[in-house]
Protein backbone atom coordinates (compact mmCIF):
# COMPACT_ATOMS: atom_id res chain seq x y z
CA UNK A 1 0.00 0.00 0.00
CA UNK A 2 2.83 2.44 0.73
CA UNK A 3 5.25 1.28 -1.94
CA UNK A 4 6.94 3.50 -4.52
CA UNK A 5 5.14 1.69 -7.34
CA UNK A 6 1.77 2.45 -5.77
CA UNK A 7 2.68 6.08 -5.24
CA UNK A 8 3.47 6.45 -8.96
CA UNK A 9 -0.07 5.26 -9.78
CA UNK A 10 -1.80 7.91 -7.67
CA UNK A 11 -3.08 11.14 -9.17
CA UNK A 12 -1.11 14.14 -7.82
CA UNK A 13 -4.30 15.80 -6.56
CA UNK A 14 -5.74 12.65 -4.98
CA UNK A 15 -4.98 13.73 -1.42
CA UNK A 16 -7.14 16.63 -0.28
CA UNK A 17 -6.68 17.13 3.47
CA UNK A 18 -9.91 19.11 3.95
CA UNK A 19 -11.97 17.43 1.26
CA UNK A 20 -13.91 19.33 -1.37
CA UNK A 21 -17.43 20.19 -2.35
CA UNK A 22 -20.47 20.57 -0.12
CA UNK A 23 -19.20 18.03 2.42
CA UNK A 24 -15.75 19.48 3.05
CA UNK A 25 -14.22 19.72 6.50
CA UNK A 26 -15.96 22.15 8.85
CA UNK A 27 -12.58 23.00 10.40
CA UNK A 28 -11.12 24.29 7.12
CA UNK A 29 -11.66 28.00 7.82
CA UNK A 30 -10.51 27.64 11.42
CA UNK A 31 -7.31 25.81 10.43
CA UNK A 32 -6.47 28.39 7.75
CA UNK A 33 -7.14 31.23 10.19
CA UNK A 34 -4.82 29.62 12.74
CA UNK A 35 -2.10 29.23 10.11
CA UNK A 36 -2.41 32.91 9.17
CA UNK A 37 -2.21 33.98 12.82
CA UNK A 38 0.91 31.89 13.45
CA UNK A 39 2.56 33.23 10.31
CA UNK A 40 1.71 36.82 11.26
CA UNK A 41 3.15 36.33 14.76
CA UNK A 42 6.36 34.86 13.34
CA UNK A 43 6.76 37.71 10.89
CA UNK A 44 6.10 40.24 13.65
CA UNK A 45 8.58 38.62 16.05
CA UNK A 46 11.56 38.41 13.70
CA UNK A 47 13.21 41.02 11.53
CA UNK A 48 13.39 39.74 7.97
CA UNK A 49 16.04 41.33 5.76
CA UNK A 50 17.71 40.17 2.53
CA UNK A 51 21.29 38.95 2.78
CA UNK A 52 24.08 40.97 1.21
CA UNK A 53 24.37 38.60 -1.77
CA UNK A 54 20.71 39.11 -2.71
CA UNK A 55 20.21 41.46 -5.62
CA UNK A 56 17.27 43.77 -4.99
From TrEMBL:
Keyword Iron recorded: yes
Origin: domain of life: Eukaryota
UniProt keyword terms in alphabetical order: Heme, Iron, Metal-binding, Monooxygenase, Oxidoreductase
Alphabetized GO MF terms: heme binding; iron ion binding; monooxygenase activity; oxidoreductase activity, acting on paired donors, with incorporation or reduction of molecular oxygen
Family matches, as SUPFAM superfamilies: Cytochrome P450
Protein family according to the UniProt entry: Belongs to the cytochrome P450 family.
Protein name (database record): Cytochrome P450
Taxonomic source organism: Capitella teleta (Polychaete worm)
Lineage: Eukaryota, Metazoa, Spiralia, Lophotrochozoa, Annelida
Amino acid sequence: RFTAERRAELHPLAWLPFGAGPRNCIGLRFALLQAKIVLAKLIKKFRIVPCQQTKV
